[in-house]
Design a protein that fits this description.
Elements (H helix, E strand, L loop, with lengths): L2 H17 L6 H11 L8 E4 L9 H5 L4 E6 L2 H10 L4 E4 L2 H6 L8 E6 L5 E2 L5 E2 L12 E12 L2 H8 L8 H11 L9 H14 L2 E10 L4 E10 L7
Parallel strand pairs: 1-2, 1-4, 2-3, 4-7
Antiparallel strand pairs: 5-6, 7-9, 8-9
Bound molecules: S-adenosylmethionine.
Length: 237
């Protein structure tokens, strides 16, 4: 096991131990809040499009799912994911391409985790955050589903935290962000902005949004969690 994976593995083991004494990681809070809102599906069919080896966020979702599909583009990470989550369906490949070109394994996911990379990614920087996934991802969902979407709400704090990885906010990212959100997005965005935006968008895409909430993850990023329900006129009969 490489040093980095080993370190993350030990951190997760420590977290699992601490969890028994009520510590929770962010995705654990998402699940807990979703349960409190009464929106967790009875039988969770989970989809994780950016899994890495799953030790941080994915693990908390995998635990509550009857079926859990993990996509990871890096074969080395995927190999570890298979090892850590033997019951999960681990797919090696480009999940955005899979969504855009009909390669996901099912059409009835009802719990989705989008722990996408920051900024632009893909061989030719063709992807940005989770933007390309919408609305095509909706074609793979059950009539009633919950999606946790990772968003960045404070770019300046993000930049300070990422300096050592050389991953900074650049003008291309800013442009793509402004186009997706259809406004000049300020560097610090109130959670309410994201909630209003996704609520409006999902409605435009043909879904009702009975519930949505924000769960902060760190001091610059968080999850927008939406419960969506297919509008009556779009229901499969
Ligand atoms: C933020 S990490 C995910 C962390 C993970 N959810 C966890 O719980 O530890 C993002 C991951 O997405 C992967 N990735 C990037 N582009 C991808 C793509 N197009 N398809 C699938 N995975 C991708 C990266 O290799 C990276 O491992």
């Amino acid at each position: 096991m490489s040093y980095r994976v080993y370190k993350d593995y030990l951190i997760r083991k420590f977290a699992d131990f601490a969890l028994r004494y009520r510590l929770r990681l962010p995705a654990g809070y998402v699940a807990l809040n979703a349960a409190a809102y009464g929106i967790l599906p009875e039988k969770c069919i989970g989809l994780d499009l950016f899994a890495k080896y799953g030790l941080y966020q994915s693990s908390d979702f995998e635990e509550i799912c009857d079926y859990f599909e993990m996509w990871e583009i890096d074969p080395e990470f995927a190999r570890y994911a298979k090892k850590f989550f033997p019951k999960a369906e681990v797919q090696v490949g480009d999940s955005v391409d899979a969504v855009l070109n009909g390669k996901l394994l099912r059409k009835d996911y009802n719990l989705v985790l989008l722990d996408n990379p920051y900024g632009l990614y893909g061989n030719n920087s063709e992807y940005c955050e989770h933007f390309e996934l919408f609305p095509p991802l909706l074609n793979y969902l059950d009539d009633k589903s919950v999606i946790a979407i990772n968003v960045i709400y404070d770019i300046e704090v993000f930049e300070n935290s990422q300096k050592r990885y050389n991953k900074l906010f650049n003008s291309d990212w800013e442009k793509r962000r402004n186009v997706f959100y259809n406004t000049n997005v300020p560097k610090r965005v109130p959670a309410r902005f994201f909630l209003d935006f996704y609520q409006t968008k999902f409605t435009e895409w043909g879904w009702n949004v009975p519930n949505c909430f924000f769960t902060a993850r760190q001091n610059f990023t968080g999850y927008v969690v939406v419960e969506i329900e297919k509008k009556f006129e779009n229901l499969k009969i």
